[in-house]
Please model this.
Amino acid sequence: MLVFAKIKSVQQKIESLKKGTTVGFVPTMGALHKGHLSLIERAKKENDIVVVSVFVNPTQFDKQEDLINYPKTIEKDLSLLKSVFCDLVFAPSAKEIYADNITSQSFNFDGLEFQMEGKFRVGHFDGVGTIVKRLFEIVKPTKAYFGEKDFQQLQIIRNMVKNHKIPIKIVGCEIFREADGLAMSSRNARLTEAHREAAPFIYKTLKQAKVKFGTESALDVVNWVENEFEKHPLFKLEYFEIADEETLLTIKNKNPKQKYRAFIAVFAGKIRLIDNISL
Ligand code: PAF
Model:
């Protein structure tokens, strides 16, 4: 496994590959878990080589405190990447990516950026767009892999690739869960014991909401979920929304021709967890 910190050297290596070599790319912010490894395994199956980036992108954090506390575990990450036979790792510094100008480009994601996460994490998706576009320009992969846990991010990246005519196939991969249902996330490691123990409540509630959505109105389901969290002593609900999978617009009237998804963001103490379920 080759590890690069410099843009020039990773580019030179990728450009030296035999013509026609397919490159699968998994961008990450490190603190790798089995969810990331499942993306890498899928990328390995579908491409000749796999490139993984490890970069905690400062421009996508709306709170400085969150950036400072984001787990940074590069040595452990590299040994995990080796264990799944990753071919190439790109782990640049912020200076290498942004030089002296740590700012985001402004994007128009056709309104996707104003829903859910966009309402609570101002500037977040401009930061994500900036780094993902930059990484795509450096790595120039054939396919790039993203988890459905960040479903809004996935749709935004699909939108960016389409609008900027970037010739990369975006592959969305199913949410990888712990045995008790908690969606895998680098943030889970920061949960207190009590929050971690209670955390399966989030997915359990999503599954119940899915069943209710079969027979009840969206508004009733939303009210029910809000009430469940109101009663819970350990979690604070930030939002629960049922939205169209494509536009991410909040559902008005159920249309059997449309695909819906329920999205949730919850505070477990200081740790913010997100999850979603296809309805
Ligand atoms: O999902 C993530 O880990 C990040 O948002 C990404 C896509 C690596 C961009 O920094």
